[in-house]
Amino acid sequence: MLDEKKKIIYSAMQPSGYPSLGNYLGALKNWKNLKDDFDCIFSIANMHAITVRQDSANLRKKTRDLITLFIAIGLDPEKNIIYYQSDVPAHAELSWILNCFTYMGELNRMTQFKEKSSKHSENINSGLFTYPVLMAADILLYQTDVVPVGEDQRQHLEICRDIAERFNNIYGEVFKIPEGFIPKVGARIMGLQNPSKKMSKSESDNDNNVIYILDDLNLIRNKIKRSVTDSDNEIRYGEDKPGISNLLNIYSAVTGKSSEDSENEFRGVGYGEFKEAVAEAVIKEIRPIQEKYRELSSDKAYIDSVIKEGADKASYIANKTLRKVKKKVGFPQ
Ligand code: AQP
């Protein structure tokens, strides 16, 4: 099923909200660029999404909308495996086994757990705590070589490698040890109103802080116009200029220009004109995605077939690894 010579890429996204520009620039855009040269497996991580309380009907809708968006951005269900995590029970099974090879101390250090438990203090569930173990199971089930993610997932990737190495040290070469692939620009897009915190799709406090890929194009322009900057009217990168640095990053990541080229391009330009240029570049990138998304959304039979085929292909590969793991740990064959 997979081409023996090609490296395997695995990545996932939670349907915890509609994807933000951060998700797009940190992950989806790279997935699209990698999709032809690697054997790519992309998952809708709905099992991860329920670590935070979700409305059931809404989660089901967001899950389907996300798989539609995956195809709209250019992922190809003919060449890539695209599937729902909950359709492949091997994720939950391997996750349990790996839980028994993961230390509480390791999980206690996870920044995302600390952030999410302070944000959802009413629901600090054990799924939130063991989230990185499920993520390790996701990646390791597919004998993944490379995991393209944004900067915020670096720590989870490291724990995945540690768990895999620990398991391999006991049982032999069961898992491939995956490498991360974090883009040079776009790996950490910050909020437009609060550029000291990353842009997150599940943010609910301030809609102007987040650009959603499916936002109306005029709304995107307005959000960028309203974004927080500073008063010195100089367009350059700098720790003292988080808002302008973030907009420069967005511009570079969208256009594919280097950070230096973007900085040079806007030397001496006013903030208003700069924001307009950033908005234009973002809209140019997003418009065709939205058009394709609308077209695909009306093709129910096609999306249904992608979901079904993705589940079958993913299960086949995942079960191979799971059988091996079960044998190693001593479960009856
Ligand atoms: N701000 C960001 N900049 C660059 N990349 C980002 N990613 C997330 N935020 C940014 C990358 O998007 C991918 C999918 O992430 P996820 O859905 O698994 O969860 P997340 O990392 O927790 O993303 P969000 O948007 O912040 O989701 P919520 O709000 O539900 O927690 C990953 O590759 C991530 O690095």
What's the number of structural domains? 2
- What is the distance, rounded to the nearest whole angstrom, between the alpha carbons of the first and last residues? 24 Å
CATH domain class name of the largest domain = Alpha Beta
From the spread of the alpha carbons, the general shape counts as globular
Instruction: Note the beta-strand portion.
Output: 5-15%
Tally the helices: what do you get?
14
pLDDT below 50 for ≥5 consecutive residues: which ranges?
Answer: none
How many beta-strand elements?
Answer: 5
Oligomeric state, counting identical vs distinct chains: single chain
Which strand order spans the largest sheet, edge to edge or round the barrel?
1-2-3
CATH topology of the largest domain, by name, is Rossmann fold
Bound small molecules, which ones?
Answer: adenosine-5'-tetraphosphate
Query: Helix and strand string, N-terminal first?
Result: EHEHHEHHHHHEHEHHHHH
Look at the helices and sheets and give the structural class. mainly alpha
> What is the level-2 CATH architecture name of the largest domain?
3-Layer(aba) Sandwich
Kindly describe this structure.
Helix 3 crosses helix 13. Helix 1 links the parallel strand 1 and strand 2. The longest helix is centred in the last third of the chain and has 30 residues. The chain contains 14 helices and five strands. It folds into two domains: 207 residues, Rossmann fold; 88 residues, Tyrosyl-Transfer RNA Synthetase (Orthogonal Bundle), CATH 1.10.240. The chain is mainly α. Bound molecules: adenosine-5'-tetraphosphate.
